[in-house]
Structures are given as C-alpha cells and as structure tokens.
Amino acid sequence: MKLFASGKRHKNNIKNIAGNKILNKSVVRNEILTRPYNTIIDNGRAMKLNFEQSRKTHFKFINFKFIKTCFKFIKELYSNFIKNEIPAIGAQLAYSLLFSFFPFIIFVVTLVKYTNIYSLDILQSYSYLFPNIIYEILEEIISKAGSSKSQTTLSLSFFLTIWGASGGVLATMRGMNKAYKISEHRSFLKVRALSLLFTIALALLLIVLLITLVLGEVIGNYIFDHILNYLGLTYKNDNVYNNNLDNLYGNNLPQKNAWLLNNIWFLKKIWDVFRHILPVFFAFIVFIIIYKYMPSSRISLKAALPGAIFATIGCYTLSLGFSYYVNNYASFSLVYGSIGGVIALLIWLYWSSIIVLLGGEINSLLAL
User: Fold this and answer.
1) Which residues pair with 235 in a beta bridge?
2) Could you tell me the CA-to-CA distances from 305 to 104, 286, 360 in Å, in that order?
C-alpha cells in the first residue's frame, strides 16, 4: 500500500489513498524498524529501512578510514618495490650471501673447535629453521671442516667470508638509499671501509647468535645441576629422582628452600624459553644496525624500528614456512640432482634478502 504525508498541518500523520488517518509517523517508523528482514511493507520500504539500520549496527566498529589507509600503504609499497628494483637488488644480495655462506660456516666451525662446544650441536639447535636437504649439506661441511684445526683454514675462510659478504653489504646500502630516495654522498673509499666494518660486526653478531642457543643450554644445565646438588636431588629426564620430596625430607621439609623445591622445573622451563628468544633478539639488533647505519643519510632509532620488527618476524616465519614446504612438498633433488640443496639455499637467501629490503621500504614510507 502506498503511503504519503498530506499537508503541512498534518505532516506528522500518514494517510492512505482514501485519506483516512492511519498512525503517527513515528509509530509507523518504529513498527517498520522492528519487523524482520523478510517482511515487505509499503513497496519494500520496511526492508530498506531495516537493512540500513542493521548496517549501522553491524559495521559501526569497523574503521573504514584505517582500512583505506592500509590499502593505500600496500599500494605505495608495491609501487616502490617495482620502481626501486628490489627483486634485482635482492638477487645481488642473495648471490653475495651464497658466496660467503659456506666460508662463514667453515670459519665458525674452525673457531668453535678451540672451545668445548660441539659444532654439530649448534647445527642441531637450529635444525628446525632449515629444510632437510640444506641441513644435510651443512652437516657434511661441518663434519669435513671439523677434522682440521689449521690456522690457514681459519684465516682463508675468514677472508673469503669478509670479501663475499661485503658485496652483500654494498647491495644492502644501495637498496636502503633507493628506499629513502637519497644519493650516495660518501666517498668510494669510505663506502668500502664501512662495508668491511659492517661485515665484520654483523659476522661477529651472527657468531654470537649461533652459539647463544647451545651456550645457553650449557649454562642452564650447569646452574640447575648445582641447584639440584645443593638441594640433595638428582636430575634425569626432567624429573626429580631420589624417591620424592616427602620421602627425602619427611616432615622436615626445609622452609627456606620450599619455594625453590616446588618451582625449580618451572624456572628451568622459563630459562629454556629465554634462551630460544635470545637469538631472535640478536637478529633484531642486526636489523636495527642495518636500517639505522647503512643508508647514506642519518636515520633515527625510532624510524628504524618498524622495518627491524618486520624483518625479524618475516625472516623467522619464512624460515619455518620454507622448511615445511621443502620437507613435505618440494623435490629439489629430483629436479636439480646433487645441487638441489644449493638451489634451495639460494632461494631461501633470495627471499630473506627481499624481506630485508622491504623493511627499508616500510621505514621509508612511514617516515614520509
């Protein structure tokens, strides 16, 4: 039925075609808005009003302006990704990293042999980050490098690592400058000196990062073994043996050590979580150094943080995802034969390089 308002005097009243007064307009509006969606009154007017009211109710918590800003940011990021030749610079960086990767592993293995840490323990601690095909290559290299304590091997591997990785540092510098749209104003000699300095600093940080997980376990076991000896307990498979606390102490449970006795395994689990987080923190520090000091212009610590967070999370997620994909779906050995592991490593280094360069682009866009 078609409804309309008649005259200024009766503007709040709605009449039908015959002119008979039906209801006050507000009453009709309330009646319409409370009808279910499938109720059609007055040529669909009730459904239209009900839909508009429902849309306001369901979408009032969505910030469409924020979503629009995110889409605009992603669009600009993709535009810079193409314009600044990120894929090409990423390929150059991956090649330099691949060239220095194996000498770096040999250098670390040769260096670790002068300590009480077993090199394969370090590899085993990070095995979840690598596909099996890459893990086998690294295991073979470590086993062969572990048979020699030659000073020549140590020096040569260090030289090849620095020389190869410095090319990757130069590529990263170029990528950071492109991201911030600045030209290189430092002299050639200064750039080369800085690249060598950055390479040595990053190599040392990576060595600390690699050793931290194993060294953390050694330190943790040493501390908790002494605590157990102090309490008169023994350690085996994460359980307390020597009967149990009641049989050990009876009713004379020492009150001064009661909290320690009840929470010692909880403290050990906290330490295990901490030593796994510590390498991630070191990786975050590495990315902070890259984004803050490698561009030609001065970058504040605050401006470097978003890219460092993105690169840390991105590289960690990429490693886990790539490892799962290669172990379960990909067949690099079938396609590439004996060099399948090297190809897989190159792909992993390439996408890691892309993530690092994207972190610089993110910092650049957020700084505008």
Assistant:
1) 240
2) 28, 12, 10
Residue type, 33: L
Structure tokens at 56: 């306001």
Measure Cα distances from 352 to 114, 148, 347, 361 in Å.
31, 32, 9, 15
What is the rounded distance in angstroms from the CA atom of residue 308 to the CA atom of residue 294? 13
Helix (H, G, I), strand (E, B), or coil: what is residue 23?
Answer: strand
pLDDT single digits (tens) 258-295: 566 666 677 777 887 887 788 888 889 989 988 998 88
Distance, first Cα to last Cα, the chain: 58
Sequence-distant contacts of 290-295: CB under 8 A, at least 24 apart = 290/172, 290/176, 290/202, 290/356, 290/360, 291/176, 291/359, 291/360, 291/363, 293/198, 294/169, 294/172, 294/173, 294/176, 294/198, 295/173, 295/176, 295/177, 295/179, 295/180, 295/182, 295/360
In sequence order, which ranges of 45-112 are alpha helices (DSSP H)? 45-59, 64-83, 86-112
Write out pLDDT tens, residues 152-180: 777 777 787 788 788 888 888 888 888 88
